[in-house]
Design a protein that fits this description.
Elements (H helix, E strand, L loop, with lengths): L2 H13 L11 H12 L6 H10 L7 H14 L10 H9 L5 H10 L4 H11 L7 H12 L3 H11 L2 H4 L7 E11 L2 E2 H4 L11 H5 L7 H13 L4 E7 L3 E3 L4 H11 L1 E2 L8 E2 L2 E4 L5 H9 L3 E4 L3 E3 L17 E3 L8 E5 L4 E4 L2 E5 L6 H9 L2 H18 L22 H9 E2 L12 E5 L2 E4 L1 H13 L11 E4 L10 H17 L2 E2 L14 H8 L6 E4 L10 E4 L2 H10 L1 E5 L3 E7 L8 H15 L10 E7 L3 H10 L7 E6 L1 H20 L8 H18 L15 E6 L7 E3 L17 E3 L11 E5 L5 H18 L8 E4 L3 H10 L1 H8 E4 L17 E3 L19 E4 L19 E4 L2 H10 L5 H7 L18
Parallel strand pairs: 1-3, 2-4, 3-7, 7-8, 16-17, 16-19, 17-18, 19-20, 22-23, 22-25, 23-24, 28-29, 28-32, 29-31, 30-31, 32-33
Antiparallel strand pairs: 1-11, 5-6, 9-10, 11-12, 12-13, 14-15, 15-21, 26-27
């Protein structure tokens, strides 16, 4: 087979899409290209040179290995290419980011030719992506008396790879582009339906603004009008980047507005500038830091106050906003990185110190956070070898310690897992901390990007610090189409080889497990003191503290076993009163958001903070319903405070589920899963014996705010409504409009119901089965007036339901039951009025495979109500996704409309919904 000719055919195909040649990552193709370069008479030689120099991916791709080897031959004079001098070959190596290129540079630096060695050393001094094999070679050479090795290590000790970089520009001129009014979801920047193309950065870039070509043209025109300025993408009267972390969203913004990272690496841009009236969603802001970008909290609209300082409200009781300054498209601002101010001409508009902390300025200077993380590790290595103190090159980690002040739960976890802090110093919120990470999860629509990031940073194996890493298959579970068949096996093989537990077995031994990633991570977290990083915004565990992250941060955690972040402030949530028997715990979750906003005059005190929820008596499955929703509350993360007995029960459930994974054959050679079982047993014993009870905050801990939820106020089911027709565009699709069932008067038409996603657990499936039996008993039959799509989150739930007889009930009433031996190859476009039992996984919640029909009103248990996520608009009607409990969803599809309270109470009669009583025990120390 002629690989190059196949590549030329692909190039022609891409031309028809307005795309350039795809970057090369394969050894076979690049080897053929090199052969053509060596043949001076080859008709393809000129193009081959261009592809070799400008279109080959760096890092640990197989193509990078071939390229590095050929560049070494040129430097040693073993190959002569007129267009690539030895000096240019060194320059090429300097842009290849580790792996084979570092190996070649070490070969040359530690070789016998002194002149070549000196040149190689110069390049090595600029590199930071070195791993143990590389540093061991340097250390061995140094101990053997190599002067070159000594020189390189001394340079690393001084962190010259960082100090000799250009300083950040004092003034950065930006021109605004308002991408939307109200919260901007990352779906707008990187649509879920285009998840399959994320690893093809140029192709995926065409999806920005959900393929809105007019917006794309406006952005290009703005760039042409202001060629000397950067474009700042703005969420007017909203928060930028809500929803998912989406590295692909930041990549798209950077591709359209950012700076080229290297002249020799195509379509990888860095340093985007984004902003929002209400700032940037926490996980998205982390992603911006990965690329050395800037995220600005504009606060250009504020709550209007009357003469007495009280909030002015409109006729609906909503706070009235007034504009402080305009950010309309085309407005020119200046970001002053020294004064840390935002200016319009000579007028100071706002202090933006939070966007330009010393650490964030380092990310900007280094071109992203990776280089800083690896640089610090490399400097520490060098100083240890030389036996010297680490010089203060990087900004000191901010360490805040308040004498006599107790610790919140998250402060305790961060203090336990902190790395490189002042010995013996207790750290409080606001401190910037490097922490070791226990559990790392990668999901399948961002996993290919994570694998690319790992290749880019030349990582080849999961860090030994990490207790477990898991690669899911849930986001592509619903439809096994050609895109999935092409991408997912390749991803699973890469991650399996890297050392993760993978949902699909590349060897085909165990049954594919398309379980929702958050549920799996919740199960494999076996320590309430753990830190979890996951490639999805709903990485919100009910044990430990979990942070949703972009694909790059996930890659960094897998490669280094570390993450760096500030210790967030916490908001304490406690409960009083009694939960009515016909209420579901989902109603408590929604009421928490509603009551919090009411208590604080519309201010979302959860945003960007840890929600420390004193849930006490709910096991991890049920408690997860609360922690999962905290992503929609815009919280940074959440922590469940449990009674000892509850934690023990949760850990036993987790341990037993991990054991099932082992029995299925999912453990790897390092017995990662068995290690978790052993750790779970050890933690259970610690709690049982009182050696180390369940995590609890100190009684004198300090919180940003304390919220008390009155269960007595929750008199009927609560629904999160996208409020699609609100006159104020900024108040649509916010997750903050929480309405009681009676608001709809039993008349709102429902076109589709969905029970599934990470928000449901086994109890929801049992409630569904019991409701169907109830309705049949009351009405003689079960007849659906709207389709009901059901997707259990995990296979173990399906197995347990089968053992307990509930699955048989569900099958009885269903018109479709998934078949793993013949998975769907196409997404549904039409639904009949019946029950669909779909394969475990994300299904409709993701919006990347299955969707409701355009314009539908969907009642769902899922988490996302953003425009176009679950349902698109039609020409006649806006699609809307209302979020509620399982009983409300089920009954809405039976009736084809929202139920009345009388109908609802009758349907759940005799069914035990979530039992929850506030803990009567002390949940503080």
């Amino acid at each position: 087979m002629n690989t190059y000719n196949d590549y030329l055919k692909e190039i022609e195909e891409r031309k028809s899409q307005g795309l350039h040649p795809k970057p090369i990552d394969g050894a076979a193709l690049l080897s053929e290209i090199i052969s053509q370069i060596k043949d001076k008479d080859n008709a393809h030689r000129e193009d081959s040179l261009h592809f070799f120099i400008y279109n080959t991916l760096p890092g640990t791709t197989s193509a990078a290995g071939v390229k590095a080897k050929f560049l070494k031959e040129i430097i040693l004079g073993e190959a002569v290419v007129e267009e690539i001098s030895p000096a240019f070959a060194f320059e090429q190596l300097s842009h290849m980011k580790g792996g084979p290129s570092v190996e070649v540079l070490l070969d040359l630096a530690l070789g016998n030719d002194d002149a070549i060695a000196q040149e190689a050393a110069k390049v090595l001094k600029t590199q930071v992506f070195l791993y143990e094999a590389d540093t061991e070679r340097l250390e061995d050479a140094y101990k053997a008396g190599s002067g070159i090795a000594k020189d390189i290590i001394e340079s690393y000790a001084q962190a010259e790879f960082f100090t000799q970089l250009p300083e950040v520009d004092e003034e950065i001129e930006v021109v605004t582009y308002v991408a939307g009014v109200g919260d901007i979801s990352t779906d707008l920047l990187s649509p879920g339906a285009d998840a399959h193309s994320r690893s093809d950065r140029e192709l995926h870039g065409q999806s920005i603004f959900e393929h809105n070509k007019e917006m794309q043209k406006e952005l290009l025109a703005l760039k042409e009008q202001h060629p000397d300025k950067r474009v700042m993408l703005v969420a007017e009267k909203g928060t930028m980047g809500v929803g998912s972390s989406r590295m692909s969203g930041v990549n798209n913004v950077a591709l359209w507005t950012g700076v080229k990272s290297s002249p020799y690496v195509p379509f990888i841009n860095i340093a985007p500038v984004i902003a929002g009236t209400n700032g940037i969603a926490p996980i998205f802001l982390t992603t911006v830091g990965v690329t050395g970008g800037i995220g600005v909290d504009l606060k250009n609209w504020i709550t209007k106050k009357d003469a007495d300082g009280k909030t002015v409200v409109d006729k609906d009781g909503e706070p009235v906003l007034e504009q402080v300054y305009s950010v309309e498209t085309g407005t020119v601002f200046t970001i002053n990185t020294k004064k840390k101010k935002l200016y319009n001409g000579g007028q100071e508009l706002k202090d933006i110190s939070e966007a330009l902390t010393p650490q964030k300025l380092e990310f900007i200077k280094a071109g992203g956070s990776y280089a800083v993380v690896f640089g610090k590790k490399l400097q520490t290595f060098a100083c240890k070898v030389l036996g010297v103190e680490v010089p203060q090159v990087y900004a000191t980690s901010k360490e805040i310690s308040v004498e006599g002040q107790g610790l919140t739960a998250v402060e305790k976890i961060f203090n336990k897992n902190a790395v490189g802090t002042t010995p013996g110093k207790t750290l409080h919120a606001g401190s910037n901390v490097r922490v070791e990470v226990n559990i790392v999860g990668s999901q399948d629509t961002t996993g290919l990007m994570t694998s690319q990031e790992l290749e880019m940073m030349a990582a080849t194996v999961v860090s030994p610090i990490v207790d477990a890493g898991y690669q899911s298959g849930c986001h592509t579970a619903s439809v096994w189409d050609d895109k999935s068949k092409a991408n997912i096996p390749r991803l699973m093989k890469f991650m399996n080889d890297f050392g993760l537990i993978t949902a699909r077995d590349p060897k085909g031994v165990y049954h594919s497990m398309t379980d929702v990633i958050h549920k799996v991570l919740n199960d494999i977290t076996i320590d309430d003191w753990a830190i979890i990083i996951g490639g999805d915004s709903h990485t919100r565990m009910s044990k430990g503290v979990a942070f949703g992250a972009d694909s790059g941060t996930v890659a960094l955690a897998l490669a280094t076993g570390e993450a760096t972040m500030p210790i967030p402030q916490s908001v304490k949530v406690t409960f009083k009163g009694e939960m009515r028997s016909f209420m579901d715990f989902r109603d408590v979750v929604h009421a928490t958001q509603q009551q919090m906003l009411k208590q604080f005059g519309g201010e979302n005190v959860f945003q960007g903070r840890i929600i420390e929820v004193h849930i006490g008596t709910l096991t991890s499955d049920q408690a997860f319903t609360f922690t999962d929703w905290t992503a929609e509350m815009k919280a940074k993360a959440s922590i469940c405070i449990s009674e000892d007995e509850t934690l023990i029960e949760s850990l036993e459930i987790a341990r037993d589920r991990i054991q099932i994974m082992i029995e299925k054959g999912m453990d790897n050679e390092k017995q990662m899963l068995q290690g978790l079982v052993d750790k779970a047993n050890a933690r259970i014993q610690e709690v049982k014996t009182g050696v180390k009870p369940a995590l609890k905050p100190d009684a004198d801990a300090k919180y940003y705010a304390e919220v008390v939820i009155d269960l007595d106020e929750i008199a009927e089911p609560m629904i999160a409504d996208p409020d699609v027709n609100n006159e104020d565009v900024s108040k649509r699709y916010t997750h903050d409009t929480i309405r009681p069932l009676s608001f709809y008067g039993g008349t709102k038409k429902v076109d589709l119901g969905f029970v599934g996603s990470c928000m449901v657990h086994k109890g929801d499936m049992k409630i569904l089965a019991q409701m169907l039996k109830n309705i049949e008993g009351q009405q003689g039959k079960v007849e659906f007036n709207a389709p009901l799509v059901v997707a259990p989150p995990t296979y173990n739930i399906v197995d347990e339901l089968k053992e307990e007889g509930d699955w048989e009930v569900l099958e009885k009433y269903s018109g479709f039951v998934f078949d793993d031996n013949a998975p769907k190859g196409l997404a549904r476009t039409k639904y009949e009025n019946m029950l669909y039992l779909e394969r475990p996984g994300c299904n409709l919640c993701m919006g990347n495979q299955e969707k409701a029909e355009p314009g539908d009103t969907v009642m769902a248990t899922s988490t996302r109500l953003f425009q176009g996520r679950v349902v698109k608009d039609s020409n006649e009607k806006k699609g809307e996704s209302l979020l509620s409990s399982t009983p409300v969803v089920v009954l809405s599809t039976i009736l084809g409309r929202t139920p009345t309270m009388e109908e609802y109470e009758a349907a759940v009669d005799g069914i035990v919904l979530t039992k929850f009583k506030p803990s009567q025990k002390q949940l503080v120390i």
